[in-house]
Design a protein that fits this description.
This protein is an alpha/beta fold. It has 11 helices and 17 strands. The longest helix is centred in the middle third of the chain and has 21 residues, at 146-166. The structure holds zinc ion (2 copies).
Length: 351
Amino acid sequence: MTIETVAVGPIAAGDVLVRIRAASLCHTDLEAIEGSLVVKLPAVLGHEAAGEIVELGDDVTDLAIGDRVVLSWNPHCGRCFYCERAQPILCSAFLANGPKGFHFDGRPRLSCDGAPMHQLMYLGGFAEYCVVPAQSAIRVPDTMPFDRAALLGCGVMTGVGAATRIADMRWGAAATVIGCGAVGLSAVQGCRMTGAGAIIAVDPNPARLQLAQAVGATAACGPADAVALTRSLTDGRGSDVVIEAAGRPETFRLSMEAVRPGGQVVWLGKTGVNEDVAFRWGSLMQEKRITRSSYGGAKPAQDFPLLARAYLEGSLKLDEMISAHIRLEEINDGFAALKRGETVRSVIMFQ
Ligand SMILES: [Zn+2]
Ligand SMILES: [Zn+2]
């Protein structure tokens, strides 16, 4: 990535202009950088961001200049086949326009030397300013710090949502969370917030396991011990819910081995879309249910304010997930550190 000056606008009637104050580095940006996620170029990346509203389109009535907002990368039309079925993540307009890297209406909002610029996931948060559809700007309390707020927009929402919106989590349930990056650490917290009894965190990195226990895991181990530990804590059955947040063939397989008969598996991780993943057939039997989710069943307008409140009240731990605050000039080093597994989240602070 390079730092360039980009022209913004014109701002359409349904848009808002957000001055970005903090943006964090997520693996999906890394996929775009490395090419496993195909993005039209030139593009502004960044999709976990928070800032303040500085300009309103003519039709925007429910936001005000100065509002503190977290950005959602899932604008949706509200009336297509999937929206009508309460699956906004599959919205026809969302899926059709996303790969073009333009706005939700299919038109660009940014340009560089007169040529249109693309925006990753309708946002492009690695910038001082960002034009988004008003529905993608979700107001949070003014007391919510920008760096913590940024995390809510993707990784935290996805992980917490897996437990609160996707899994059929019951009070006292046993849950195993595989992978303790930002999404997995958030899934651990979602399990805690929904009243899970045992929460078993799985990761090869001992430092990550310590973090997981600091945010609510009741037990922790490496992948090789995950099935044995889960069974030992569940009378030999396996967990009621297994949340996979690592995105490798072996962790998808592990999720099926660690869940109990009749239990539920939520896959948040992803591997190459053309890659085959093999399973031991017996691990798939016995009435197990698998749900794959991209955004934890996010209902951003409801969930972002709830998540912010949970942080402010102390029940959602975010400070632990911020490994570093960096400047925009350090973004490439930040992604190198993310790739090496050294950071959970680096947050770019804009002055
Ligand atoms: Zn739709
Ligand atoms: Zn993300």
